[in-house]
Amino acid sequence: MRSSEIRKIFLEFFKSKGHSIIPSASLMPSETDPTALFTTAGMHPLTPYLLGEKHPGGGRVANIQKCVRTGDIDEVGDSRHLTFFEMMGNWSFGEYFKKEAIEWSWEFLTDKKWLGLDKNRLAVSVFAGNFNAPFDEEAFDLWKKLGVPEYRIAKLPKKNNWWGPAGQTGPCGPDTEMFYWTGGADKIPNSFNDDDLWVEIWNDVFMQYNKGEDGKFYPLKQKNVDTGMGLERMAMVMQGKNNVYETDLFQPIIKSLGGLTAKAVKPPSEEKSIRIIADHIKASVFIIADEVAPSNVGRGYVLRRLIRRATRHGKLLEIEGNFLVKVAEPVFEIYKEFYPELFQKKEMILSELAAEESRFNKTIEKGMKQFEDVSRKGCISGKDAFTLFSTYGFPLEMTIEMAKERNINIDAKGFGKEFEEHQKISRTASAGMFKGGLADAGEKTTKYHTATHLLHQALKIVLGESVNQKGSNITAERLRFDFSWPEKMTKEQIEKAEQIVNGKIKENLPVDWAEMDLDDARKSGAIGLFGHKYETKVKVYDIGGEGKSFSKEICMGPHAASTGELGRFKIIKEEAVSAGVRRIKAILE
Ligand code: ATP
Ligand code: MG
Asked: Which of 39, 86, 87, 194, when mutated, tests ligand 1's pocket best, judged by the most ligand atoms within 8 Å of its CB?
């Protein structure tokens, strides 16, 4: 069965069960989410609805979500882990629960009308229970009733079969996973074990608890189902292959690569370098399509890492000259029907890829030589790794990979120190620039910094002391503030917070700061991030001053001189970022 057919029947199946079909969200979580670089699962963009917001598509939806998992980069090359993959999922926002979810999973997997998989090659796992939450007997019984023999229902601990909140609090619950035996028919183990030939294909998550501030688990008001099935892994199963590179989602890429290498390689889809290039270039195409450019920070750095690692593996395969565009071409063919935007942006994507490849090709040879030189010492120092990074453009992870290949150690911590030193220098440089041409924008962002402190304190007053900052981002147009809070704020709470901030603006409070030891700052009751281990002295900004202090917060500044300068404060959006984390966007009018 072709992958396009799997997509089609998956959506058809869940449509027949009353689900509305929704499109894939971007790979970039809503704007610049500080808690996640990329969309890592179908669940990610749907978090607000899992937390109770109404979805326009209703209580049952199904989709195919593109995902990028940077955490799996090192796994790439095995039979089943990719950095870019698609996750098919069905969702219940408070409508159905375990019974329907499990029965439908089984029906879709085994019914001849749908995938028609051999039941004897399937095994499942359920949550075994611990002192916090009980054994998921309900799931166990449901599988048994469907005819899954008990020896094929593994009871696994929380590490495997629990979906937890990203923060300390929030919705969570057990899950049940489905595995397919990809080995020989005569070798199927009776029970599920950790043999690699058992491949996880689908995961049904049951959100039924809310982890409270007290660390206890309470039943959730709205119980949800969140499932995820990897398209590539399912294609592998349906096409009778034992790795994802043999499927129609990869073969055209592998073929073009096989034709480029001068080196004699095993069957191309077995060759690790070929797998890495194929995966990384596909991922890069999708990441660029979602408007990320290679850089040295955040998502841009991940993209750079992928492209440069692919370039280096091209060298290992003795591919001559620039080749990434040739490898990328088939990606557009494979996906043109499902992601028309790829095709529309093709020219931009290819030129971005080619530019990054050329940039790296200028330094890679010299960098390799440099690497050989320094690795002769038997260990790569932090300084050497940093020079490879800053002068030759070698991402740290790439240097680590190369060191591993030669069995030598690398001082990654030392690299971190060098990196920080370097950042300090460039920060000072950009601070100089800040005083120059950017004065206007500077003034506005200064006001937003001060407004952020007022908002932080106002939220503590309205919602309670447990509210903590999770992230903040300021532009000349708005402030964005992420904080720990398990649920949507009510209209009243939002208005109250606005009122408090505007009240403090009206009072025209002075904004002062003092430099002190971190310990003293803590003792003075200042809030803020205490995570900066390297700073011994910190700046504490105090809004209100002696006797009238409204907010005390550790911060680098700069800030407005008094709150009266800020103007009118208005919250324009309140939304979920991830489980247990909310985001406010606000403006000063
Ligand atoms: P594994 O243990 O194999 O890494 P996982 O537990 O990380 O899988 P989930 O987070 O439950 O997987 O994701 C749901 C489904 O998405 C999996 O059942 C699998 O089919 C697919 N999937 C997960 N990670 C990847 C990946 N890196 N590449 C391809 N498919 C994946
Ligand atoms: Mg995984």
From this structure: 87
